[in-house]
Amino acid sequence: MLNKSFLVSALSLLLISSVGTVAADELKFGSVAMDIPAVMHKKLTPMTDYLSRAIEQPVSLRLSPNMASAIDAVASDNVDLAYLTPVAYLKAHKKGQSEILVKTVTNNKASFQLMIVVRQDSTIKTIADLTGAEFAFGDKAALLQRAVVVGAGVPLDKLGSYKFIGHYDNIARGVKNGDFDAGILKDTKAFKWESKGLRILYSSPHLPPYNITVSKNLNKATREKLKKAFLALNGKNPKHREIIQALSKKYNGFAPANDADYDVVRELIKPFN
After folding, report:
1. Cα(266)–Cα(273) distance, rounded to whole angstroms?
2. pLDDT digit string (tens) for 64-77?
3. What is the number of other CB atoms lying within 10 angstroms of the CB of residue 96?
4. Containing H/E element for 81?
5. CA geometry: angle at 61 spanning 59 and 67, to 5°?
6. How far is the C-alpha of 104 from the C-alpha of 230, rounded, in Å?
7. What is the pTM of this model?
8. Which domains occur in the chain, in start order?
């Protein structure tokens, strides 16, 4: 007859083994740090819950405190997939051969533009007139904003001055209030502020949007399950819309993506490499 201590030990080993198996099968979902952790959890938890059900495998969040660590996490295989900006994807791809899976769709478009704006009554009429201007950027980590301005033909050292003031609404208000001569906004925000006293001076080429990037070591079968799950999300379905718009109110869903989609961004950021 087996003694009690032996049974306890055997059960303990079995539990440890089971926990280890579950942990090994769990997929880790990383993200750029667009907001404080509590907000990011609120944005992404509906998605991880959905993915867990859709692929019948647990998916948990592994948030990064900043852009650099989010890039490193997926490039170094510390997370299996990540929600990244266009530039963050390119850096993860270069650093760790991370691969693009899908891209976001905003207002039924799988691309966006960045736009330089001025006040409606501004004397700035052309890009050349920005020489000596006081310019407003958003986040210092948002390299693409600066790249678009340089790509438009305005080297940063030709501006009178420039500051990083956070969110797009801060930029719009700063330009509208006369604190800055010009600033850069995402297209949806620029269109919104056209009726509030701003004028679009320049529009960038169409740019690929935020995306889902996967680790190079994620197996093909799991990758295909994830891709199918993301592409199955339909903004016209009320339940799906809740999941998609928890991430962004402007999102409709996801679209197929490939590395070549991001070549336009590669060209824009070349001067900053």
Report:
1. 10
2. 888 889 999 999 99
3. 20
4. strand 81-84
5. 135
6. 10
7. 0.79
8. 26-107+209-259 (3.40.190.10), 114-203 (3.40.190.10)
